[in-house]
Amino acid sequence: MKKYLTSRKFLLTFASFCGSIGTAIAGLHTENETLVIVGVICSAVSVAIYTAVEGLVDATATTNRTIEIRENVSRETLERELDGSKNEAQGN
Structural domain tally of the chain? Predict the structure, then answer.
């Protein structure tokens, strides 16, 4: 969890979110509805983008790890089969 809280992506998103909320609060204080709407939309968009990017990064990492595991299992299986074939050839 600490890894995510100290990542540059999270810190940048958090700063953007805080700035957007600040904009919305300033809009409320000055009674400017457009500023409030822009602040709320920007804060929601920054969170949505962060979530999408983290999901993409996690999916890519999972895919790469799955491919690596499959390659290792395939290599081990192939080596076992080759060793078995050699033993059978020597036994006959």
Answer: 1
